[in-house]
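Q: Phage holin family protein, please. Structure only.
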Amino acid sequence: MADRQGPAERVITSARRLLSNMIATGETRLRLAVLELEAERDRMLSLLLLAGAALITFSFALGMLLLMLVVLYWEDHRLLAIGVCAAVLFIITACLAYGAKRIAKRRRLMQSTLSHLEQDRQALGGSRESP
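A: Structure for Phage holin family protein:
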């Protein structure tokens, strides 16, 4: 004889299936978020190491160049040479600070996870209005 369920059992079975699907979807999204965080961590570590090495090398090269210019013009225009070197350093510092500020404003962390969650929200029929 076939196992027949009543209406209450069917509702409970459907609710369990729905809950199971929601948990599976949540787990998938959580795994995606973890993968994105790990990739971002690795990218940031590489970026920091390379930027640090480049900054140290650039500092030594710039110091040598400025020392060469000051020694070259020491007899005739020592104050002008030191002033020009200081101005160049201030301009380079301002450009680097501006570039760092622009990079800091960019938001990339977990973009894929957020877009998938938005797709899930739209698929479920819910809409979220932008503030």
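A: Brief note, in case it's useful. The chain is about 85% helix and 0% strand.
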